[in-house]
Amino acid sequence: MSLPEVLLWQILRKQPGHIKFRRQHPIGRYILDFYVLELKLGIEIDGEAHGMDDRPERDEARDRWLASQGIRVLRIAATDVLADPAAVADSIVRLCTAS
């Protein structure tokens, strides 16, 4: 796990809002950074590499395949997590409880 993922996991593993988050969860040939099974919500923390070379196209293809499986994907910039992991976790929990 990358540093932003570790920082976010330290909060999400405590099941805020009684939401069970899974980390490094496999779906098909992909591994999601975090996953909420009950909501079919994948959470991806995107670092700098996600904007380089063919990575945007690969991410788009991955998101399309996950959508075909009924899974929504929330992408969050790693810089946002590094700046304020608690705020990012809070926004994820609010999204989950609003669903």
UniProtKB/TrEMBL annotation:
It comes from the Bacteria. Signal peptide: none annotated. InterPro entries: DUF559, Endonuclease_DUF559_bact, Restrct_endonuc-II-like. Gene3D superfamilies: VSR Endonuclease. Residues 3-96 form the DUF559 domain. PANTHER family: BLL0828 PROTEIN (PTHR38590). This is DUF559 domain-containing protein. It comes from Sphingopyxis macrogoltabida (Sphingomonas macrogoltabidus).
